[in-house]
Design brief:
DNA-binding; single chain; alpha+beta; archaeoglobus fulgidus dsm 4304 fold; 5 helices; 236 residues
Amino acid sequence: MQVQHFHSWDVTPKEAIQIQQQLRAKVIPHGKVGTPNLIAGADVAFVEDIAHACVVVLSFPKLDVLETVVHKAKVTFPYIPGLLSFRETPALVQAFGKLKHDPDLIFIDGQGLAHPRAAGIACHIGVILDRPTIGCAKSLLFGTYKEPKQARGSVSDLCDDGGGVIGAVVRTKDGVQPVFVSIGHKIDLAQAIELSLACGKGYRIAEPTRQADILAERAKSKGGHGVEQGSQGELF
DNA sequence: GCGACAG
DNA sequence: ATCTTGTCGC
């Protein structure tokens, strides 16, 4: 699929925060996705400073894997809570660029609007690829919530300090830790929650992300050692 | 100052 | 994220 960069990835943490504040205005926090035909999932595995960025495309609603791509790249930006996007997105967009299919929706392993600056990695990737995106994280970064009921399908609001709803805490499987769902780009929260549950295969993690996770784990151990090359994009 | 903190 | 053994429950 075609990829358009909006800024350089060679930035300092301070500059990264500035970029997120601008990104915030580019995010479209609503919209409906008709029944999707193709759904992508993305994940990154690391071997020291080498990222193995993986993207998988599944059919919907069958959830069969139709395509997988891997892009290896050296990473320099460190992991800093709130700035995860600057560590994982560069390699991921290169991987998305190798995709033959054009997904109707993308699941990202991380937060979307449920972020201190309302600009999590799901928003960032959604804006760059101009595709509906859902942030589906395994743990909390920002916000408060009340524990959802134990039954699969139970949902509770994730709120910011002012009480505004920034996402949802979703129980995707009976009695197991919930996942944190938030808007990434061009989709409303209600449908993000709906699709997160519709993409479940009996596991806590939605199938698109779970398959990307499996691919990343394999790429990390069975993958070669060379590092691929790719443009880092242009400046603003 | 202290505690929290996606992957 | 990654490291790393056993253990609880369906």
